[in-house]
Design goal:
The structure is a single chain. By secondary structure, this protein is mostly helical. The protein contains ten helices and no strands. It has helices at 2-32, 39-46, 50-56, 60-75, 89-106, 108-116, 123-143, 150-159, 162-169, 175-191. Helix 5 runs antiparallel to helix 10 (175-191).
Length: 201
């Protein structure tokens, strides 16, 4: 019985060390960027020996994969079920805008990491492509018959972008208030099929 207890403590300690390494790497990636962060810096920041770091993450890709897994778990991108029961473009836009706002609240530190250095190499490529495909499906479902309208898609992508969302929020509106304002501004134009566009034919 004592041996089982010691093994349990050792396993828990190992998990804590692994978590500390991952968190240290995330902080450094946000501060310095992915390409400028070395494994030696991660070890120092996590207060572990280089050998301990290698025991947990033999390669940089192993560490990045663990960070990607953490990011996906924390961000929790919405899926198409958010539109269940909704029939109008206005309803779908409002739901998408609110879900986008909630997502941005969850993804704050990951967005800071992306601003520091877009994640376009290594294990980030596959995860980024999957995430991009998820949002593309969400946008297309929200637009419905306008999904193949290049202007409609461009405007929707722009208004759901974190920079635009934060600019509208401007530190004075709640996430839901911001989402509803964006949806209210965008819905009439899309309901009209973009027919008021200057270059519409």
């Amino acid at each position: 019985m004592p041996r089982t207890y010691r093994l349990g403590r050792r396993s828990a300690q190992k998990d804590l060390t692994r978590t500390r390494i991952v968190e240290a790497a995330i902080d450094l990636y946000i501060e310095l960027g992915i390409s400028r962060t070395t494994m030696q810096q991660v070890a120092r920041s996590a207060d572990v020996a280089p050998g301990t770091l290698r025991n947990h993450f033999p390669s940089r890709d192993d560490l990045d994969r663990a960070i990607v897994d953490r990011a996906l778990a924390e961000m929790q991108a919405p899926d198409l079920s958010i539109y269940n029961g909704l029939s109008t473009i206005g309803e779908r836009l409002t739901r998408l805008s609110r879900e986008t706002g909630a997502f941005l609240d969850r993804a704050g530190r990951w967005y800071k990491m992306w601003l520091r250095e877009p994640m376009v190499t290594g294990v980030w490529v596959e995860a980024g492509a999957a995430y991009g495909a998820t949002w593309d499906r969400l946008f297309r479902e929200a637009l419905g018959p306008l999904a193949d309208e290049a202007d409609a898609m461009a405007i929707l992508r722009a208004t759901m972008h974190p920079t635009f969302f934060e600019a509208v929020q401007s530190g004075t509106r709640s996430t839901d208030q911001t989402a509803d304002l964006i949806a209210a501004a965008l819905t009439p134009w899309l309901e009209a099929g973009g027919r008021d566009r200057p270059n519409a034919r």
